[in-house]
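Minutes, project huddle
Topic: does the predicted pose make sense with iron/sulfur cluster bound?
PN asked that the exact inputs be recorded in the minutes so nobody has to dig through chat later. Recorded below.
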Amino acid sequence: MANVIKAPKRQLTYVTDLNKCIGCQTCTVACKKLWTTGPGQDFMYWRNVETAPGLGYPRNWQTKGGGYKNGELQKGKIPPMIDYGIPFEFDYAGRLFEGKPGRVRPSPTPRSAPNWDEDQGAGEYPNNSFFYLPRMCNHCTKPACLEACPNEAIYKREQDGIVVIHQDKCKGAQACVQSCPYAKPYFNPLTNKANKCIGCFPRIEKGVAPACVAQCVGRAMHVGFVDDVSSSVYKLIKQYKVALPLHPEFGTEPNVFYVPPVLGPRMELANGELSTDPKIPLAQLEGLFGKQVRDVLAILQTEREKKMKGQASDLMDVLIGRRSADMMISPLT
Ligand code: SF4
Ligand code: SF4
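Predicted holo structure (tokens), as shared on screen:
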């Protein structure tokens, strides 16, 4: 029988403004340094930032399956290790200090790595385009990982809705890896346990924002409790309705949302002039965020134009986020 999903008292929620993400990977590194430096975790990036369109990390995760279809839990595939990118080493010591001949080359010779296709995007020059898509566990309202686990090792924390794998209960069945359509639980072959983003709950409990949010160079991230009407996450998701979940059709009801990219460059016409159409194809954005994206882009464009004319726009002020404290609502700082 499937595990019961117990609704939390409150839900911690994240919003990333894709217009502000510069793909610097600071959030990736902040998370990596904090949580996944242990044995067997080399290949894991609980937080990753990939190029869209692109293969993503792990490669082709968008077609791995899992999630829900007509309310039924789907199994999906376990990505092979090559799709995460085999970690490789550079033998600097041998070349620099031990007199080994030849150039410093990575070993083994890499055939793939996370972000192997970084910044490639799609389309024909001069109308090619891409944007950055930061990804993490969505701490879903209907976590497929939780429902799939045969050992009842996964639970939603009552106080904040963060989805956690109880490491003592996990027996390495990998049902979560199979069932999560976002490929966000990772199997550690050395410990025979599944690991995933823990929402930085030890920081949350101290009133400190998650590392990815706190370190974000682009000031692209917001975090807060969505029932707090003064929070920026409430305003972006519920009030202005400009933040959308990634692949809502996967059916897990994510609690990580995105403000779609509207500020990208315009299409270039054959005569060299700029058209009014954006380079990033609407169909691509609809494929990621659903049909609602069209309305969101219109709202953002209208509010942006207001601001450009010197008129007031509360929505643009929320997105600009002049003070970090307003993006990581109290008590998170
Ligand atoms: Fe579980 Fe995947 Fe949802 Fe995270 S994103 S809660 S791992 S189903
Ligand atoms: Fe994007 Fe912020 Fe991460 Fe940099 S730190 S890649 S700007 S989300």
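Observations noted during the meeting:
- The pocket of iron/sulfur cluster (ligand 1) is lined by residues 137-140, 143-145, 163, 180, 182, 184-185, 196, 252 (CB under 6 Å).
- The first helix runs from residue 26 to 35.
No decisions taken; revisit at the next huddle.
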